[in-house]
Specification:
Rossmann fold; alpha/beta; 258 residues; globular; binds NADP nicotinamide-adenine-dinucleotide phosphate; 7 strands
Protein backbone atom coordinates (compact mmCIF):
# COMPACT_ATOMS: atom_id res chain seq x y z
CA UNK A 1 0.00 0.00 0.00
CA UNK A 2 1.36 3.41 -0.95
CA UNK A 3 0.70 5.75 1.98
CA UNK A 4 0.88 8.77 -0.34
CA UNK A 5 2.96 11.01 1.93
CA UNK A 6 6.20 11.19 -0.02
CA UNK A 7 7.55 14.74 0.25
CA UNK A 8 5.45 15.69 3.27
CA UNK A 9 7.17 17.41 6.21
CA UNK A 10 6.77 15.84 9.65
CA UNK A 11 7.71 17.10 13.11
CA UNK A 12 8.16 14.47 15.82
CA UNK A 13 8.76 15.61 19.39
CA UNK A 14 11.21 13.46 21.32
CA UNK A 15 12.57 11.50 18.40
CA UNK A 16 15.97 10.44 19.65
CA UNK A 17 14.87 7.11 21.12
CA UNK A 18 11.91 4.83 21.69
CA UNK A 19 8.54 5.40 20.11
CA UNK A 20 9.36 8.85 18.74
CA UNK A 21 12.50 7.53 17.07
CA UNK A 22 10.51 4.70 15.50
CA UNK A 23 7.78 7.08 14.31
CA UNK A 24 10.41 9.37 12.77
CA UNK A 25 12.18 6.45 11.10
CA UNK A 26 8.96 5.06 9.62
CA UNK A 27 7.89 8.47 8.30
CA UNK A 28 11.35 8.82 6.70
CA UNK A 29 10.95 5.40 5.10
CA UNK A 30 7.67 6.66 3.61
CA UNK A 31 9.51 9.58 2.00
CA UNK A 32 8.79 12.37 4.48
CA UNK A 33 11.32 14.98 5.56
CA UNK A 34 11.42 14.73 9.34
CA UNK A 35 12.44 17.07 12.16
CA UNK A 36 13.00 15.54 15.59
CA UNK A 37 13.90 17.11 18.92
CA UNK A 38 15.26 16.04 22.28
CA UNK A 39 16.90 17.66 25.29
CA UNK A 40 20.15 15.71 25.00
CA UNK A 41 22.34 16.62 22.02
CA UNK A 42 24.21 13.34 22.39
CA UNK A 43 21.06 11.25 21.93
CA UNK A 44 20.02 13.40 18.98
CA UNK A 45 23.43 13.11 17.29
CA UNK A 46 23.40 9.34 17.54
CA UNK A 47 19.94 9.00 16.01
CA UNK A 48 20.59 11.62 13.33
CA UNK A 49 23.82 9.97 12.27
CA UNK A 50 22.03 6.65 11.93
CA UNK A 51 19.14 8.13 9.93
CA UNK A 52 21.24 10.35 7.69
CA UNK A 53 23.46 7.31 7.05
CA UNK A 54 20.39 5.60 5.62
CA UNK A 55 19.91 8.55 3.27
CA UNK A 56 16.97 10.14 5.04
CA UNK A 57 16.23 13.85 5.04
CA UNK A 58 16.13 14.61 8.75
CA UNK A 59 17.14 17.39 11.13
CA UNK A 60 17.49 17.40 14.92
CA UNK A 61 16.85 20.32 17.23
CA UNK A 62 18.01 20.39 20.82
CA UNK A 63 14.94 21.77 22.57
CA UNK A 64 12.80 21.13 25.63
CA UNK A 65 9.20 21.04 24.39
CA UNK A 66 7.85 21.07 27.94
CA UNK A 67 8.48 24.83 27.67
CA UNK A 68 6.87 27.37 25.34
CA UNK A 69 10.30 28.68 24.26
CA UNK A 70 11.61 25.20 23.47
CA UNK A 71 8.54 24.39 21.41
CA UNK A 72 8.84 27.65 19.49
CA UNK A 73 12.50 26.94 18.79
CA UNK A 74 11.75 23.43 17.52
CA UNK A 75 9.03 24.76 15.23
CA UNK A 76 11.05 27.69 13.87
CA UNK A 77 14.14 25.56 13.19
CA UNK A 78 11.97 23.03 11.36
CA UNK A 79 10.39 25.76 9.23
CA UNK A 80 13.85 27.15 8.46
CA UNK A 81 14.94 23.72 7.24
CA UNK A 82 11.83 22.50 5.43
CA UNK A 83 9.61 25.54 4.79
CA UNK A 84 6.31 24.10 6.05
CA UNK A 85 4.77 21.49 8.34
CA UNK A 86 2.24 18.88 7.18
CA UNK A 87 2.40 16.34 9.99
CA UNK A 88 2.88 16.72 13.75
CA UNK A 89 3.53 13.78 16.03
CA UNK A 90 3.33 14.94 19.65
CA UNK A 91 5.25 12.14 21.27
CA UNK A 92 6.97 13.40 24.42
CA UNK A 93 5.41 12.33 27.68
CA UNK A 94 5.98 10.71 31.03
CA UNK A 95 5.56 11.28 34.76
CA UNK A 96 7.23 14.10 36.66
CA UNK A 97 7.39 13.79 40.45
CA UNK A 98 5.02 11.79 42.68
CA UNK A 99 2.86 8.95 41.45
CA UNK A 100 0.02 8.95 43.99
CA UNK A 101 -2.15 11.68 45.51
CA UNK A 102 -0.26 12.17 48.77
CA UNK A 103 3.16 12.42 47.17
CA UNK A 104 2.13 14.76 44.35
CA UNK A 105 2.78 18.48 44.67
CA UNK A 106 1.19 21.24 42.59
CA UNK A 107 4.49 21.50 40.75
CA UNK A 108 4.39 17.77 39.88
CA UNK A 109 0.91 18.26 38.42
CA UNK A 110 2.01 21.28 36.40
CA UNK A 111 5.20 19.59 35.16
CA UNK A 112 3.40 16.43 34.06
CA UNK A 113 0.68 18.42 32.31
CA UNK A 114 3.26 20.59 30.54
CA UNK A 115 5.13 17.54 29.31
CA UNK A 116 2.15 15.48 28.11
CA UNK A 117 -0.55 18.02 27.28
CA UNK A 118 0.77 21.56 26.83
CA UNK A 119 3.67 20.44 24.66
CA UNK A 120 1.06 19.11 22.23
CA UNK A 121 -1.23 22.14 22.56
CA UNK A 122 1.60 24.60 21.87
CA UNK A 123 3.12 22.82 18.89
CA UNK A 124 -0.34 22.32 17.41
CA UNK A 125 -1.05 26.03 17.84
CA UNK A 126 2.08 26.86 15.85
CA UNK A 127 1.54 24.39 13.02
CA UNK A 128 -2.21 24.58 12.61
CA UNK A 129 -2.84 27.89 10.78
CA UNK A 130 -0.92 26.80 7.68
CA UNK A 131 -2.42 23.28 7.73
CA UNK A 132 -5.92 24.82 7.79
CA UNK A 133 -5.06 27.22 5.03
CA UNK A 134 -3.71 24.42 2.82
CA UNK A 135 -6.59 22.07 3.74
CA UNK A 136 -4.22 19.24 4.66
CA UNK A 137 -2.78 18.20 7.99
CA UNK A 138 -2.23 15.22 10.24
CA UNK A 139 -1.74 15.38 13.99
CA UNK A 140 -1.03 12.24 15.99
CA UNK A 141 -0.78 12.56 19.75
CA UNK A 142 0.91 9.73 21.61
CA UNK A 143 -1.24 8.99 24.65
CA UNK A 144 -1.29 5.66 26.53
CA UNK A 145 -3.72 2.89 27.32
CA UNK A 146 -3.34 4.43 30.80
CA UNK A 147 -5.24 7.50 29.65
CA UNK A 148 -8.12 5.44 28.28
CA UNK A 149 -8.46 3.27 31.41
CA UNK A 150 -6.98 2.91 34.89
CA UNK A 151 -3.20 2.52 35.14
CA UNK A 152 0.11 4.27 35.80
CA UNK A 153 0.66 7.20 38.13
CA UNK A 154 -2.15 9.62 39.00
CA UNK A 155 -0.77 12.66 37.17
CA UNK A 156 0.27 10.58 34.13
CA UNK A 157 -3.14 8.94 33.74
CA UNK A 158 -4.88 12.30 34.16
CA UNK A 159 -2.59 14.05 31.67
CA UNK A 160 -2.99 11.32 29.04
CA UNK A 161 -6.79 11.35 29.50
CA UNK A 162 -6.66 15.13 29.01
CA UNK A 163 -4.55 14.66 25.85
CA UNK A 164 -7.16 12.26 24.46
CA UNK A 165 -9.96 14.72 25.28
CA UNK A 166 -8.02 17.60 23.70
CA UNK A 167 -7.45 15.54 20.56
CA UNK A 168 -11.10 14.51 20.26
CA UNK A 169 -12.34 18.08 20.64
CA UNK A 170 -9.82 19.42 18.16
CA UNK A 171 -10.54 16.63 15.67
CA UNK A 172 -14.22 17.55 15.39
CA UNK A 173 -13.53 21.25 14.89
CA UNK A 174 -10.83 20.58 12.27
CA UNK A 175 -12.60 17.88 10.26
CA UNK A 176 -13.94 20.38 7.67
CA UNK A 177 -10.36 21.50 6.97
CA UNK A 178 -9.02 18.01 6.27
CA UNK A 179 -6.76 18.33 9.30
CA UNK A 180 -7.10 14.97 11.02
CA UNK A 181 -6.32 14.48 14.69
CA UNK A 182 -5.96 11.11 16.40
CA UNK A 183 -4.36 9.59 19.46
CA UNK A 184 -2.37 6.42 19.61
CA UNK A 185 -2.42 4.55 22.91
CA UNK A 186 0.56 2.23 23.36
CA UNK A 187 0.72 -0.53 25.92
CA UNK A 188 4.01 -1.47 27.60
CA UNK A 189 6.66 -1.14 24.89
CA UNK A 190 10.25 -2.16 25.59
CA UNK A 191 13.33 -0.71 23.86
CA UNK A 192 16.93 0.17 24.77
CA UNK A 193 17.05 3.07 27.23
CA UNK A 194 13.30 2.98 27.87
CA UNK A 195 11.31 2.73 31.10
CA UNK A 196 10.32 -0.93 30.62
CA UNK A 197 13.92 -1.91 30.08
CA UNK A 198 14.70 -0.17 33.38
CA UNK A 199 11.81 -2.07 35.00
CA UNK A 200 13.14 -5.41 33.70
CA UNK A 201 16.72 -4.66 34.75
CA UNK A 202 15.70 -3.22 38.12
CA UNK A 203 13.48 -6.08 39.30
CA UNK A 204 13.86 -9.77 40.02
CA UNK A 205 13.00 -12.27 37.32
CA UNK A 206 10.01 -13.32 39.45
CA UNK A 207 8.54 -9.81 39.63
CA UNK A 208 8.97 -9.34 35.89
CA UNK A 209 7.40 -12.73 35.13
CA UNK A 210 4.46 -11.93 37.39
CA UNK A 211 3.93 -8.56 35.66
CA UNK A 212 4.00 -10.17 32.24
CA UNK A 213 1.57 -12.91 33.30
CA UNK A 214 -0.83 -10.39 34.84
CA UNK A 215 -0.64 -7.59 32.25
CA UNK A 216 0.55 -8.82 28.87
CA UNK A 217 -1.68 -11.34 27.04
CA UNK A 218 0.99 -12.03 24.42
CA UNK A 219 3.37 -13.13 27.17
CA UNK A 220 5.94 -10.47 26.29
CA UNK A 221 6.48 -6.73 26.19
CA UNK A 222 5.56 -4.76 23.10
CA UNK A 223 8.12 -3.43 20.59
CA UNK A 224 8.27 -0.05 18.80
CA UNK A 225 7.79 -1.04 15.14
CA UNK A 226 3.97 -1.43 15.22
CA UNK A 227 3.72 1.97 16.90
CA UNK A 228 5.77 3.57 14.10
CA UNK A 229 3.67 1.81 11.47
CA UNK A 230 0.40 3.00 13.03
CA UNK A 231 1.69 6.57 13.28
CA UNK A 232 2.66 6.54 9.60
CA UNK A 233 -0.71 5.11 8.60
CA UNK A 234 -2.64 7.72 10.61
CA UNK A 235 -0.52 10.43 8.95
CA UNK A 236 -1.19 9.09 5.48
CA UNK A 237 -3.60 9.74 2.63
CA UNK A 238 -5.02 6.27 3.24
CA UNK A 239 -6.34 7.30 6.67
CA UNK A 240 -8.42 10.16 5.28
CA UNK A 241 -11.65 9.10 7.04
CA UNK A 242 -10.01 8.57 10.41
CA UNK A 243 -10.17 11.45 12.86
CA UNK A 244 -11.00 11.76 16.55
CA UNK A 245 -9.99 8.13 17.10
CA UNK A 246 -7.90 6.72 19.92
CA UNK A 247 -6.19 3.56 18.79
CA UNK A 248 -4.56 1.00 21.07
CA UNK A 249 -1.29 -0.59 20.02
CA UNK A 250 -0.90 -2.86 23.01
CA UNK A 251 -1.00 -6.57 22.19
CA UNK A 252 -4.37 -6.84 23.95
CA UNK A 253 -3.07 -5.34 27.20
CA UNK A 254 -5.96 -2.94 27.81
CA UNK A 255 -9.15 -4.25 29.43
CA UNK A 256 -11.62 -1.69 28.21
CA UNK A 257 -14.38 -2.63 25.73
CA UNK A 258 -13.91 0.69 23.90
N1 LIG B 1 7.24 3.09 26.23
C1 LIG B 1 6.02 2.73 26.59
O1 LIG B 1 5.79 1.60 27.01
C2 LIG B 1 4.88 3.70 26.50
C3 LIG B 1 3.60 3.23 26.82
C4 LIG B 1 2.53 4.11 26.72
C5 LIG B 1 2.72 5.41 26.33
N2 LIG B 1 3.98 5.84 26.04
C6 LIG B 1 4.14 7.23 25.63
O2 LIG B 1 4.87 7.26 24.42
C7 LIG B 1 5.65 8.45 24.37
C8 LIG B 1 7.10 8.08 24.12
O3 LIG B 1 7.50 7.20 25.12
P1 LIG B 1 8.94 6.56 25.18
O4 LIG B 1 8.82 5.43 26.12
O5 LIG B 1 9.46 6.38 23.81
O6 LIG B 1 9.69 7.79 25.94
P2 LIG B 1 11.18 8.04 26.39
O7 LIG B 1 12.00 6.82 26.54
O8 LIG B 1 11.02 8.92 27.57
O9 LIG B 1 11.78 8.87 25.14
C9 LIG B 1 11.27 10.09 24.90
C10 LIG B 1 12.02 10.84 23.82
O10 LIG B 1 11.61 12.16 24.03
C11 LIG B 1 12.72 12.99 24.38
N3 LIG B 1 12.21 13.92 25.39
C12 LIG B 1 11.79 13.64 26.63
N4 LIG B 1 11.37 14.76 27.23
C13 LIG B 1 11.54 15.76 26.34
C14 LIG B 1 11.28 17.15 26.37
N5 LIG B 1 10.79 17.76 27.46
N6 LIG B 1 11.56 17.89 25.27
C15 LIG B 1 12.08 17.31 24.17
N7 LIG B 1 12.34 15.99 24.08
C16 LIG B 1 12.07 15.24 25.16
C17 LIG B 1 13.80 12.02 24.83
O11 LIG B 1 15.11 12.54 24.66
P3 LIG B 1 15.80 13.40 25.86
O12 LIG B 1 15.69 12.60 27.10
O13 LIG B 1 17.21 13.61 25.39
O14 LIG B 1 15.05 14.69 25.95
C18 LIG B 1 13.53 10.85 23.89
O15 LIG B 1 14.04 11.12 22.62
C19 LIG B 1 5.41 9.18 25.70
O16 LIG B 1 4.40 10.12 25.53
C20 LIG B 1 4.93 8.07 26.61
O17 LIG B 1 4.14 8.54 27.67
C21 LIG B 1 5.07 5.02 26.12
Amino acid sequence: MDLGIKGRVALVTGGSRGLGRQAALTLCQEGCSVAICARSQEGLDQTLEEMKGLGYHVIGVQADVATAEGTEEFYQESIKAFGQVDIIVNNVGGTRGGRDFDSTTDQDWLDTLELNLLSAVRLTRLGLPSMKERRWGRIVNIASIWGREFGGGLTYMSAKAALIAFSKHLALSLAPYNVLVNTLAPGSIQFPGGSWERFVNGNSEEVVKEFIARQLPMGKFGWPEPVGAMVAFLCSERADLITGASINVDGGQSRSLI
